[in-house]
């Protein structure tokens, strides 16, 4: 059974239709890479999944439950803030611009939500936080502030921060687009490692080589519609994308 | 054939050191420094030696009970106004930035009203509030009343002063806090919300601490302004620092020395506040700069050692 199920997702900004009836299924433990030209709706699609954007129509369900809405006959009614916040705990997100909390050290960034939102003890959260930072290759940088880290290091802390919530689904919104070419590799290596461990991932990226190597499914989005979907060998080899 | 390689004019093996550089002498700087030093010394000398300043009288009154009591009132007013004013200000800023159009408009209206009338006028209003509402009651709006008191009994001059100062301060504090919140990248809130935090937690843990960096300098200004602004309550006979020295000079006619007593205290307090601001700013700069520069004290210690 699929972990993430999107049906007829539609979204317009003003008069511009960004998503036009998108359907998508993501199996548990699989890696889905979304590619497509700029403005094709990739980021909006991803941001709808954890309700950072409000869709106009369509349903998104994770693990069988509707995200941010409850069905009421013909319409979907938005859930209260607290309920949506609870749903978001299961969905990790990594942003293009990292968005580490600038006033906190790397470790404090990682343990903030486990302590404050999940109510874990500081000791447990820090122990696990250190382990996660070590896993993304940042041993010994626990006390560094984001501004003291390179872009690649910041993005790896951001991935550790998302993993600290033990999400069932990880969303990556162009995780390497803001990085110097020399730093892209270290972040992709972390993504590859996550994929091997069976993390369910949806990745928006322009890194076609990464898609070809790691993705189970590639989705090509164009003008808010799913143009093609399938294994990378079938989807990526003929039509030029990006 | 001429070579395109740069010509080597000095032979590195000859051993003669490269020519040393010497900075400009800045003659003009020295002249202006001398002129200004002479003027400052002349002014200080005249202040120190003019008997009309009455420095001995200043020393005599600086620590008298009446003056210290006035100083206490001034400190109380400044502290209460700043703390309560900013708590209200944070609330008003949160209302203004909320998605609720009614709360947002009410907050805007409050700031508009309290910024568009002079503090002195507001103080006089609160001083005379008994004329507007002779009785004040506690109860449910449009519902039953639990108890009521005569306004004149509840609103003493000190309470009138506090009300006036706090409500005025809140309007300005709201704008300072709102500006600070807007200075934090919206992506920070998104990242926090994506981790499952509620909006209230995002504001408290993620946005406000980072907003402090731009809130603190404006707040330092504001606190110093409030400290001096409290002197305005002397017009409604609150015995603050200024009113206390006025009471004394009305009796002794030593106007200038007693105004100097007040001046000396105001200068001491603002100096303490300025130093405090420096350290608070440093605290909130953590994470915003790669390494913090040494404090003046640390620099001094390095020189002495």
From TrEMBL, chain A:
GO terms for molecular function: ATP binding. Residues 4-241 form the ABC transporter domain. The keyword Nucleotide-binding applies. It comes from the Bacteria. InterPro entries: AAA+_ATPase, ABC_ATPase_HisP-typ, ABC_transporter-like_ATP-bd, ABC_transporter-like_CS, MetN_ABC_transporter-like, P-loop_NTPase. Keywords: ATP-binding, Cell membrane, Membrane, Nucleotide-binding, Transport. Gene3D superfamilies: P-loop containing nucleotide triphosphate hydrolases. It is a peripheral membrane protein. Its main location: membrane. It is found in: Cell membrane. This is Amino acid ABC transporter ATP-binding protein. The lineage of its organism: Bacteria, Bacillati, Actinomycetota, Actinomycetes, Pseudonocardiales.
Automatic annotation (TrEMBL), chain B:
It holds the Pfam family BPD_transp_1. It is a multi-pass membrane protein. Residues 71-277 form the ABC transmembrane type-1 domain. Coiled coil: none annotated. It is found in: Cell membrane. PROSITE patterns: ABC_TM1. Belongs to the binding-protein-dependent transport system permease family. The lineage of its organism: Bacteria, Bacillati, Actinomycetota, Actinomycetes, Pseudonocardiales. It comes from Actinomycetospora termitidis. Residues 1-23 are annotated as: Disordered. It comes from the Bacteria. This is Amino acid ABC transporter permease. PANTHER family: L-CYSTINE TRANSPORT SYSTEM PERMEASE PROTEIN TCYL, MEMBRANE COMPONENT OF AMINO ACID ABC TRANSPORTER.
């Amino acid at each position: 059974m699929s972990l993430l199920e999107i049906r007829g997702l539609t979204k317009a900004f003003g008069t511009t239709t960004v998503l036009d009836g998108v359907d998508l299924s993501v199996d548990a433990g699989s890696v889905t890479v979304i590619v497509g030209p700029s403005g094709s709706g990739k980021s909006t699609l991803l941001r709808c999944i954890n309700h950072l954007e409000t869709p106009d129509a369509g349903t998104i369900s994770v693990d069988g439950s509707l995200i941010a809405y409850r069905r009421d006959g013909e319409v979907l009614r938005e859930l209260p803030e607290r309920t949506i916040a609870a749903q978001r705990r299961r969905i990790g997100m990594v942003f293009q611009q990292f968005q580490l909390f600038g006033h906190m050290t790397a470790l404090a960034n990682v343990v903030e939500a486990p302590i404050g939102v999940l109510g874990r003890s500081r000791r447990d959260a820090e122990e696990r936080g250190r382990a996660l930072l070590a896993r993304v290759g940042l041993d010994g940088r626990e006390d560094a502030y984001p501004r003291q880290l390179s872009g690649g290091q910041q993005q790896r802390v951001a991935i550790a921060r998302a993993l600290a919530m033990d999400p069932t689904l990880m969303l990556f919104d162009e995780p390497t687009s803001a990085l110097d070419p020399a730093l892209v590799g270290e972040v992709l290596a972390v993504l590859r490692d996550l994929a091997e461990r069976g993390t369910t991932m949806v990745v928006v990226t322009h890194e076609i080589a990464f898609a070809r190597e790691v993705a189970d499914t590639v989705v090509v989005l164009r003008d808010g519609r799913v143009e093609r979907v399938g294994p990378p060998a079938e989807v990526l080899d003929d039509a030029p994308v990006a | 054939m001429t070579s395109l390689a740069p010509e080597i004019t000095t032979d590195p093996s000859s051993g003669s050191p490269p020519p040393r550089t010497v900075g400009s002498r800045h003659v003009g700087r020295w002249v202006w420094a001398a002129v200004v030093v002479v003027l400052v010394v002349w002014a200080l000398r005249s202040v120190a030696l003019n008997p009309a300043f009455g420095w001995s009288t200043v020393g005599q009154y600086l620590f008298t009970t009446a003056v210290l009591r006035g100083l206490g009132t001034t400190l109380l007013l400044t502290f209460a106004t700043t703390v309560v004013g900013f708590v209200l200000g944070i609330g008003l800023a949160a209302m203004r930035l909320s998605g609720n159009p009614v709360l947002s408009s009410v907050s805007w209206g409050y700031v508009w009203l309290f910024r568009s009338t002079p503090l002195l006028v507001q103080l006089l209003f609160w001083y005379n509030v008994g004329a507007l509402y002779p009785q004040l009651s506690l109860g449910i709006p449009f519902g039953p009343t639990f108890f009521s008191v005569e306004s004149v009994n509840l609103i003493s001059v000190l309470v009138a002063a506090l009300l006036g100062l706090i409500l005025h301060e809140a309007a300005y504090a709201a704008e300072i806090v709102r500006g600070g919140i807007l200075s934090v990248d919206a992506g920070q809130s998104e990242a926090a919300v994506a981790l499952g935090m509620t909006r209230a937690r995002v504001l408290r843990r993620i946005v406000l601490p980072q907003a402090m960096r731009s809130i603190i300098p404006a707040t330092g200004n504001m606190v110093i302004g409030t400290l001096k602004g409290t002197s305005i309550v002397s017009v409604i006979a609150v015995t603050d620092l200024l009113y206390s020295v006025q009471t004394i000079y009305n009796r002794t006619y030593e106007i200038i020395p007693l105004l100097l007593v007040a001046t000396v205290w105001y200068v001491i307090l603002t100096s303490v506040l300025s130093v405090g601001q420096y350290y608070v700013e440093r605290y909130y700069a953590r994470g915003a700069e790669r390494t913090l520069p040494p404090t003046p004290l640390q620099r001094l210690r390095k020189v002495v050692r």
